[in-house]
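Hi support team,

I'm filing this because I wasn't sure whether my run with iron/sulfur cluster finished correctly. The job status page said complete, but I'd like someone to confirm that the output block is well-formed before I use it downstream. Pasting the exact inputs I used:
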Amino acid sequence: MRKMKTMDGNQAAAHVAYGFSEVAAIYPITPSSPMPEHVDEWAGQGRKNLFGHTVQVVEMQSEAGAAAAVHGSLQAGALTTTFTSSQGLLLMLPNLYKVSGELLPGVFHVAARAIAAQALSIFGDHQDVMAARAAGCAMLAESSVQEVMDLAPVAHLTALKTRVPFINFFDGFRTSHEIQKIEVLEYDELKPLVDQEALEAFRQRALNPDAPVTRGTAENPDIYFQHREASNPFYLEVPNVVEHYMHEINKITGRNYQLFNYYGAEDATDVIVTMGSSAQVATETVDYLRAQGRKVGFVQVHLFRPFATDRFVAALPKTVERVAVLDRTKEPGALAEPLFLDVQAALVQHNINAKVFGGRYGLSSKDVIPADLVAVFDNMLAEAGKRFFTLGINDDVTNLSLNRAEGVSVKTEGLTGCKFWGFGSDGTVGANKSAIKIIGDHTDMYAQAYFDYDSKKSGGVTMSHLRFGKNPINKPYLVTEPEFIACHRQSYVHEYDLLRGIKKGGTFLLNCTWSPEELAEKLPAKLRRTIAEKELNFYIINAAKIAAEIGLGGRINMVTQAAFFKLTEDTIIPIDKAVEYLKDSIEKTYGKKGADVVAMNNKAVDEGVGALVKVEVPAAWKDAKDSEDTFEKSSCTTCPSYVANIAKPVNAQAGYDLPVSAFTGYEDGTLPSGTAAFEKRGAALFVPHWIKENCIQCNQCSFVCPHATIRPVLATAEEAAAGPENFETIPEMMTKGELQFRIAVSPLDCLGCGNCVNICPAPKGKAIEMRPIDGELEFAPAWDYGVALPTKSHPMKQETVKGSQFKTPLLEFSGACAGCGETPYAKLITQLFGDRMMIANATGCSSIWGASMPASPYTKNQQGQGPAWANSLFEDNAEFGYGMFIGTEKIRTQLADTVASI
Ligand code: SF4
Ligand code: SF4
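And here is everything the job wrote out:
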């Protein structure tokens, strides 16, 4: 048995890249960032590469700088690599052409990602690598973490031997961040594969004043074209060399890598062609359909550039009649997507008369599942099959999408799926990463973990998807039929369809403060019905209480992790062993923070094991009626249509089901202002309570609040009297009793950071204190009433701390982290100038908290005015803002000229 380790695709790529590199010029971009981070860390630890040296790591000012440094380092004769994604790769384009044009053997590892178009997305598809396909690099694709480990060496070895640089890519997030237990290739196994002569020749070609040459010349029409053609032989050699090194890797691993791997029936008539992680879905789909007697198969593309048509057609079964090519990219206006065009051309070139279909799928990490691929095979056979189609969405505008095939259930013997609903920053994701490593590294089981998040910087919903079993796990999509579901936040019982897909007889663990007796009243009817109908083993635990008593605050992760291992002890690890491993990992993780922290976490583990309460599910829950629900769901009868039709479903994790037509009218990516106000996340456990007797009306609490969820309210005596019962006020100090004053708090929007309480300077004692949210919810109507009152003038100058806070903030309820130090200033600017602002916002933290669909925290005043906000890219923001300025100025000048001419 080879050495197994639990890691993600980024770590696998970094392991290989480190081994083969002497220099790494880096610049981070999600989801590729962990690759350079690993390389940087290992270099700092003095780890040695294949050649016995430490890698020289340089961080540059941008991806363009990183690519230029790669270019220069290669010219100097050092084996050089870098890592990137998305627009980062596009920024490297000019140098990719240079590096390939000068036949320099660099390797660019890419966690392939969507490109910002109508909106930015950090998730995976092939739009970036497809945009780079003309740059002259060879392109090698991997479909799993194991393949990254096995084939990334092929990219490095072939680049060195052929002098053609490589883009080595795999699916962003799905492969880059999926944790898998894989076999590791050791450096001493790889070192003999390095072509020493090629390495020496590379060194000899390096720029060197002892043998000076000139490179990077200018050429005219007389010779440029011919000279460009002169490198063709190098590219013609690439497939042979890739094949050679794949065979070498095959000898080491026992696996079978080819330029194009075919899998399926020898006499298949219908074949899918795909690249990247979807190949694993194709494997199980083909198995599923062949078990029904269908003659199907699929071709997995590994070497995309150069596209070796002879190897491709050789991989196809002779019996093929129909081919469906799946592209994970979109080229608006193109005849078809790139892989389709290559396949079509290859078939024509080799006189293969098969009907070719083209499908687009998986943009921005949208899952493709076996039911999608069954639909692709069915579509090829249908009389009115769509020649071009999309997968995994409902396109009711151009009607391109295929409906998922119904009744497809691909079962894998002995595989257990688990899903965890967590709350950003509660430690659930970290705990699951640690759990999967414990399972992977301490049992003979294979393990897989993938993490799904919303866009909040913290305090959003997280969904952890874990699988483990006796065989390698080839399911690059979310867990859809879990045996185990845990929900770590009780308010989610009303917000999400928590138990969707859970298997009959499965286990449900709910972290809540409720007693078993209270559950009938607290849980919505639908949840109770599912628990009873599916005969679930239902457990509760009060992890928040345990964590708080131990001193861990809101960090419930160790309690819930211990509970998970207890509930799965029969299928995974005996609980005493699991506790031992958990405590080992606590020592590793928290050891540097001191013995106290370690002891607290150890105690959380011990208590988590013993604190589970099994709920006896009443038979009557099967008949629970929705009308019995005591919880009042927020009504959307008065919401703007965008909120009702897009924001609400997205926030309920139902965005996957929205049809294309939901975006009619918003095709250009426009997001209406002020939609964050409809979220009402209820994310804080403790929120401020105003103690009016102590308040000196300084407004500092409002000034520092990152989320604009605590504000001074001015009201006339009549307005104060007409407010809700608990709309208590005190006479306003500077208007001599003309106005009433109140500090209003929105409990459902507050993130509980406590900044307001910390800053409060009231001399008699704090005039605000944090209290449990349950008791403060009754003040929500007082907030709604107070902030809707007409704005009043106040004698205090608006340029002062106090005066500024009487102006309406036009930035509220952002998705920034609790306690954010940036948003109070951005909010203040909107209070002073927001009604006349245009914002050019660079890509980064402020663009994520400022404009993550479907929530816009930028809003309007009572006159309907507010900041107009737009984002271009990360690196061009000054120019983008300058463009806004000159465009606006030009329109104004023209207007003035027109008026003057009348
Ligand atoms: S606790 Fe933080 S988010 Fe809540 S009102 Fe105070 S400053 Fe604002
Ligand atoms: S900081 Fe304290 S004293 Fe000042 S307005 Fe707020 S609650 Fe009142």
